[in-house]
Design a protein that fits this description.
Rossmann fold; 9 helices; binds S-adenosylmethionine; alpha/beta
Length: about 260
């Protein structure tokens, strides 16, 4: 019998583990803010078939599988967490190559990709690392390549700085990750200064922990497994409810966003 590789941060207790790995531990497979639906929108917003694809931070390998379903000419996943790399490797079998590296400096060849994908990984970086990762995506892409991004964003564009700060603090406190979402115009500026043109933008509610989205993302059996695991683990339940409260408290100002970016 083959056993699954351990999840990242498996040695940490439910109080200190990063929110996305806590959710994975209780059985959640979809860890990105706009859910499976926004990932599917992204994958179909640009041609993947026959293209060389690099994915930053594949996590549990869900989008890796969506991408491989489109028959790219190659798939390379890059995650800084060796355990995440093992989880994705096991999810995709022999369907692609996996590299343990930071997306800031992947070690891959310049102009070696037609499509770069990154979901739920830029928001958690500070300003200078966000920039380095976007510049690395531009370096990896061949001319006319596409960078597909799925992240958290703040709305509206002119949101008061004091509300931005409060949201960032609440996210950091409940997720235990220094999450710094940007407004759509701040994200666009970051991409444009690194040499991208914004081709399409798609907003979705941030409904990661809402029952209807969880049912759509995880299915009946998956949702039942998550509920059962949470009923059995009081510490995990407390953390998940605190994360959910942060998302619902700020739901007027937090969205998921997908960007299709063309390398100029
Ligand atoms: C919230 S999870 C998202 C995983 C997956 N993209 C998804 O949407 O389900 C964040 C992932 O980013 C990875 N990560 C964080 N910083 C990274 C970096 N600088 N380079 C590569 N991967 C990174 C983590 O190891 C983790 O797999």
């Amino acid at each position: 019998m083959t056993s699954s590789p351990p999840l990242p941060q498996h040695e940490r207790d439910s109080e200190s583990v990063a929110g996305h790995w806590l959710l994975a531990r209780v059985g959640k497979k979809v860890l990105r803010p706009g859910g499976r639906e926004l990932s599917e929108w992204l994958v179909h917003a640009s041609t993947v078939t026959g293209k060389r694809v690099v994915e930053f931070a594949p996590g549990l390998g869900l989008t890796a599988s969506l991408l491989l379903d489109e028959s790219p000419s190659s798939y390379t996943g890059v995650d800084s967490d060796p355990e995440a790399v093992e989880v994705t490797r096991s999810a995709i079998g022999g369907g692609g190559a996996m590299v343990v590296a930071s997306a800031r400096e992947t070690g891959l060849e310049s102009a070696s990709a037609d499509v770069v994908v990154g979901e739920a990984m830029l928001t958690m970086q500070g300003d200078s690392t966000k920039r380095q990762i976007v510049v690395e995506a531009a370096r990896l892409l061949d001319s006319d390549g596409r960078y597909l991004v799925h992240e958290l964003c703040l709305v509206p564009d002119d949101l008061d700085d004091s509300i931005k700060t409060e949201i960032r603090k609440d996210l950091a406190r409940s997720i235990r990750v220094n999450a710094r979402p940007l407004t759509v115009s701040e994200w666009s500026e970051l991409f444009e200064t690194a040499g991208f043109e914004v081709e399409a933008t798609e907003l979705r509610p941030m409904a990661l922990l809402q029952p209807r989205r969880m049912l759509a993302d995880e299915g009946v059996v998956g949702l039942a497994r998550i509920v059962r695991n949470l009923l059995r683990d009081a510490d995990a339940r407390k953390r998940v409810l605190a994360m959910r409260k942060t998302f619902t408290t700020h739901d007027e100002h937090i969205n998921a966003v997908g960007f299709v970016l063309r390398k100029r």
